[in-house]
């Protein structure tokens, strides 16, 4: 059972059901097999394995296949039992797995990229395999012919991918911190828009086609929610992790967001409330509270015979302030700040006043997320939402299967148990 990151008491937490060990290098992807007691893993040790739970309660590899290059990404389509494995050399290999998950047959190789494959999505209706790679491009190939249909290049490594099957919109995150929305056609594509808000490389994306929300996680430790279908450009910022956010999953039924970070942090965010949008940071040559000049404002420094001050920003109002006018720290979960951040003195007082108002049932500083410790490096996470199950894996070569029903409220299917 996992312990907490935060010291405040929690009534529920994820339950560790099983640990799967055996890979000789980092596990780059792990996927739960729907309706089965099984997991598919791909690793930097050049193997892809299918693990089935035996009567003893232990997981044993029923399939063990060695590739020509380290495995960097994977997609699995359960209805057709097709597995697509991206490799460090840029190729994607397709396999077909038998109904009893004891045999896997090679289908074809796709020359998708010139460098490491970072993400793969398979679309059955169009028979496309869409992928991103460290050759700075997104490609889409025909699974019938194995031929390349189209490519689009970026200025940075393409790191993650999401796809809307109905509209053929692809969301591509890259190492520059930008997300590009593309409309894919049979042999060409067009740029719809670009989303900029992160201060670090995009590490994970999640698209919810029902509410038309895009969630992005980044190396700047933050998550942004982009309202694609509603008020375009509206963003919500979530900050609670202390390392780069490696994986995210939005549960539309319960309006909860599950996120995992490289330090093993697992967060469950309550998105079923009206949150406030974080303000844009304002620019100024002097403190917008005391009007003292910042250190680059040579003219005002000369005129007032004062030394310039360092510029900071209040996270609640966005104003440019000096250190003396922003001595306080406060959490403000309604705006996504789950730990204490810099606020100007007047905003700190307004938060205190808001909490002190008569009739306030829930204080404004009450957390709107729960934080848990996965106790291993997490580089990839996947959920089976219908069963409330989550699998995590990372550079420590361990795969962990979690019962998330205590924190997300989904129903757990029979078959998986902690005994």
TrEMBL record:
SUPFAM superfamilies: FYVE/PHD zinc finger (SSF57903), WD40 repeat-like (SSF50978). Residues 281-352 form the FYVE-type domain. GO terms for biological process: positive regulation of toll-like receptor 3 signaling pathway; positive regulation of toll-like receptor 4 signaling pathway. Keywords: Endosome, Metal-binding, Phosphoprotein, Repeat, WD repeat, Zinc, Zinc-finger. It comes from the Eukaryota. CDD domains: FYVE_WDFY1. Its main location: other. InterPro entries: WD40/YVTN_repeat-like_dom_sf (IPR015943), WD40_PAC1 (IPR020472), WD40_repeat_CS (IPR019775), WD40_repeat_dom_sf (IPR036322), WD40_rpt (IPR001680), WDFY1/WDFY2 (IPR042234), WDFY1_FYVE (IPR042733), Znf_FYVE (IPR000306). The keyword Metal-binding applies. GO terms for molecular function: 1-phosphatidylinositol binding; zinc ion binding. PROSITE patterns: WD_REPEATS_1, WD_REPEATS_2, WD_REPEATS_REGION, ZF_FYVE. WD repeats lie at residues 20-51, 195-228, 238-279. It is found in: Early endosome. GO terms for cellular component: cell junction; cytosol; early endosome; Golgi apparatus; nucleolus. Positively regulates TLR3- and TLR4-mediated signaling pathways by bridging the interaction between TLR3 or TLR4 and TICAM1. Promotes TLR3/4 ligand-induced activation of transcription factors IRF3 and NF-kappa-B, as well as the production of IFN-beta and inflammatory cytokines. This is WD repeat and FYVE domain-containing protein 1. The lineage of its organism: Eukaryota, Metazoa, Chordata, Craniata, Vertebrata. The gene is WDFY1.
